[in-house]
Design a protein that fits this description.
Layout (H helix, E strand, L loop, with lengths): L5 E11 L18 H13 L3 E4 L6 E7 L9 E5 L6 E5 L6 H21 L2 E4 L11 H11 L1 H9 L12 E6 L2 H13 L1 H8 L4 E2 L2 E2 L8 H7 L23 H10 L5 E2 L5 E4 L5 H6 L6 E5 L4 E4 L4 H5 L9 E6 L5 H10 L1 H11 E7 L13 H11 L1 H10 L3 H10 L8 E2 L2 E2 H19 L8 H9 L3 H11 L4 H11 E2 L2
Antiparallel strand pairs: 1-5, 1-6, 1-7, 2-3, 3-4, 4-5, 6-18, 7-15, 8-9, 10-11, 11-12, 12-13, 14-15, 16-17
Length: 492
C-alpha cells in the first residue's frame, strides 16, 4: 500500500423532468425513474463503449463501467448503477491522490452522462430520500426482486429493504494502514451523529413532510432494515454499535458474532445456510455432515468450512462505517484463525503482512447538497492526517455514550441546541478545525472543500431545515417541489 488514495460512492435521486409531454408507465413529473428507463440509459452507455456488469442470479445488467486512463489502482474506471429499484442512482470514481483530482473526475463523469439521462427525460436530484414518488410497498414490490436476486434472499432471512431502499447516501473511502485503522474507525463511528448535522436533508420524502416530521430519515430507515428479523442482535448492524470497537480483535469479533445473512463465494451468488449460524459457529462448530446451504437460484450445496473470501465479504453484512480489504492470495483462513486466537497483537501483525488492500468506507453520510460532494471526505481526510490530535478530542475528551446520545437526537434536534450542556455548533466547529489543520499539513489547499461545512455551522442550520423553509414558504405543493428541484437538481 504505497500510496494513499481516496474516492467516493455518490448516490443521487434519478427523477423525471417536470415538463415532459409523455411519461413512461409508472413515471410522473419529478417522479422516480423506473428500472426500465434506467436500463435504457445503461444501454445508451453500452453503445458508447461502456462495459456491462450482470447480476449473477437474475442476469440483469445492474451496472456499467468505463475504463479511465489513471493507473493509480486496479479500480481505474467509472461506474453507474441503480443500487436498488426506486430511482437511486449511484456512481463511483477511480481513486485519486487528492480532492482536486477527484472533483475533476466527478465533474467529467457528470458531463458525460447528463445528456444521455436527458434523452430519457431524467435528471439527478441531490436529496436524502426520494423526493416525490411515495414509498409504498406496492411500488417497491414491483421491481425489487427483478433487479438483484440478493435482495430476495435477504428478505427471506428477515432483512426488510423497504424503507432503506428510498434513502440516498454518499460513501467516502480512504486508504489506511493497519496501525491507523482502529483509532480512525473509532473517530469515524463516534462522529456518526455529527455527520448528520453537516449533511442531513431528509425533511421531505414522497412529496410531503417525512414521517414524524423527521429532519433525517436515514437512522430510522437503517433500524427498519432489521425490525422483522428473528434475531434481535441484527439491530446492532446499523447506526453505531452498542459496544465500541477498540481493536482489530474487537472488529472481527463484531463481524463474526452476527448470525449470517448470506455467504458469498467466487461465483458471486449469495448462499444462505438454513440454520443461520453466526460466523463463529460456522467456523468453530460445523456439523459432521457439513452445513446445508442454498443459493437464491436454487442450488443446494454442502459447506464444510470457511474460506478466506467469506471473511473478506463479511463486512457487507453491516451498515456502519467499515473496512474493505483484500488479502494476499497466499494467505489462508487457518492462518487468520490462529492469529485471531493468539490475540490482538498477533492478529495485527498478520494483517500487516497479508493485507494487499485496506481502506475505510464511511457509511453515515447523507447525499450531500449540490456542489458539496467532497466536503465530508475532506473532513475525514483532514482528521486522518491529523490523527493524534483528532483522537485526543473525539475519543479521549468525550466518552462513547456522549456520541451515541448525539446520534440519537439527529432526526429531530436543531443544530442550534445543546447535548449534555455542550453547544452543538461549537462541537462541530472544533471538528472542522481539526480537519482543516490536517488538510493544511498536506499543503495542497484542500481545506477549501471544508468551507460549506464552516458556513453551515456559522448559520447554525442544516440542509434539512433550509429545505423545510423553502417547502413551507412555497405552499407544500407541486410548486414547492419544482422550486426544490431547480435548487437541488443537476441538469445538462
Amino acid at each position: 500500500m504505497a500510496k494513499k488514495l481516496i474516492s467516493i460512492e455518490l448516490e443521487r435521486a434519478l427523477v423525471y423532468r417536470p415538463d415532459l409531454k409523455n411519461y413512461p408507465p409508472l413515471g410522473a413529473p419529478l417522479g422516480s425513474a423506473t428500472p426500465f428507463s434506467f436500463q435504457s440509459f445503461l444501454h445508451r452507455l453500452l453503445q458508447k463503449g461502456w462495459e456491462p456488469i450482470f447480476d449473477p442470479t437474475t442476469g440483469v445488467i445492474i451496472r456499467v463501467k468505463k475504463k479511465r486512463p489513471d493507473s493509480l489502482s486496479d479500480a481505474n474506471y467509472w461506474t453507474c448503477t441503480s443500487d436498488v429499484t426506486t430511482g437511486i442512482f449511484e456512481t463511483t470514481l477511480p481513486p485519486q491522490e487528492n480532492l482536486f483530482s477527484l472533483e475533476k473526475e466527478q465533474r467529467l463523469l457528470d458531463k458525460t452522462i447528463l445528456p444521455l439521462l436527458a434523452e430519457e427525460g431524467l435528471f439527478v436530484w441531490y436529496t436524502e430520500a426520494t423526493p416525490v414518488t411515495e414509498a409504498t410497498r406496492e411500488y417497491y414490490a414491483l421491481f425489487h426482486t427483478y433487479w438483484r436476486g440478493e435482495y430476495a434472499h435477504l428478505r427471506n432471512r428477515g432483512m426488510d429493504h423497504y424503507w432503506f431502499s428510498w434513502i440516498l447516501g454518499n460513501n467516502p473511502s480512504l486508504d489506511i494502514s493497519v496501525k491507523e485503522a482502529i483509532p480512525f474507525l473509532r473517530i469515524i463511528i463516534r462522529l456518526t451523529g455529527a455527520t448528520f448535522f453537516f449533511l442531513r436533508q431528509g425533511a421531505i420524502t414522497g412529496g410531503k413532510l417525512s414521517p414524524g416530521r423527521m429532519l433525517t430519515i436515514r437512522p430510522w430507515a437503517w433500524k427498519n432494515l432489521f425490525l422483522k428479523s428473528p434475531y434481535i442482535t441484527d439491530l446492532d448492524r446499523v447506526g453505531m454499535p452498542e459496544k465500541e470497537i477498540t481493536s482489530w480483535h474487537d472488529y472481527f469479533s463484531y463481524l463474526m458474532g452476527f448470525r449470517l445473512l448470506t455467504l458469498f463465494f467466487d461465483d458471486g451468488r449469495p448462499y444462505r445456510i438454513f440454520s443461520d449460524p453466526s460466523f463463529f459457529s460456522f467456523w468453530k462448530n460445523p456439523p459432521i455432515g457439513g452445513w446445508d446451504a442454498c443459493s437464491i437460484d436454487g442450488q443446494w450445496i454442502k459447506v464444510y468450512r470457511p474460506e478466506l473470501i467469506n471473511l473478506e465479504r463479511l463486512q457487507r453484512q453491516t451498515y456502519v462505517s467499515r473496512f474493505r480489504f483484500e488479502l494476499s492470495p497466499t494467505a489462508t483462513f487457518g492462518e487468520f484463525g490462529n492469529a485471531f486466537e493468539d490475540g490482538n497483537k498477533t492478529l495485527e501483525n498478520w494483517l500487516t503482512k497479508n493485507l494487499q488492500k485496506l481502506y475505510i468506507e464511511a457509511r453515515a453520510d447523507s447525499c450531500p447538497p449540490k456542489n458539496e460532494e467532497f466536503s465530508t471526505l475532506a473532513l475525514y481526510l483532514g482528521l486522518l492526517t491529523n490523527l493524534d490530535e483528532s483522537f485526543k478530542f473525539v475519543v479521549d475528551k468525550f466518552d462513547y455514550n456522549f456520541w451515541k446520545k448525539l446520534f440519537s437526537v439527529v432526526p429531530y434536534a436543531f443544530m442550534d441546541s445543546k447535548i449534555d450542556g455542550i453547544w452543538i455548533p461549537e462541537l462541530l466547529e472544533t471538528i472542522i478545525e481539526l480537519g482543516k489543520k490536517g488538510l493544511k499539513n498536506r499543503g495542497l489547499g484542500e481545506e477549501i472543500f471544508l468551507q460549506p461545512l464552516s458556513d453551515r455551522v456559522q448559520r447554525k442550520t442544516t440542509p434539512a431545515e433550509e429545505t423545510l423553509k423553502i417547502f413551507n414558504k412555497a405552499g407544500k405543493n407541486k410548486k414547492a417541489l419544482k422550486i426544490l428541484a431547480q435548487k437541488q437538481g443537476l441538469f445538462p
